[in-house]
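User: Here's a chain of 153 residues. Predict its fold as tokens.
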Amino acid sequence: MGDMTTIREILEFAIEREGEAVEFYMAMADRVKNPAIQELFEDLVTEELEHKSRLELEVMKEGIVARTVGVLPETSLDKTAVDLDQVRSQMDYQEALDVAIQKERRSLRLYARLSGLVVEAEFSETLLSLAEEEARHLTALEEQYENAMTEQQ
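Assistant: Prediction complete.
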């Protein structure tokens, strides 16, 4: 996708990223053997599907001819992809959490950045709300990581 100048392009980009997140977490759940880690990734799949549905609803709303503050060059976007090669079948819980933390941190930055570029408050609020949800995911994952580190000691 090239430079984005409309809310529709931004929303479609975000929908694409959520779809990639769903695929990523599904692949992670399939690759790992530990049931607790599988459950973690399956829960993230559910959450990312909810995000995708919210974004798709925004696209379906009437009159999406909104503008952004400026042009958002594709090259300026923080990559949200985390390489699946990082996911090994025998990874431990902390390693799995670390990969998920990286992914959520990137998603948070993406939505925060996109929300700041949208002129219309309604759409900006939707993107900001998604950034807040990603922040909650990130906080929960970081807490789980801290707990895992504490238990290991």
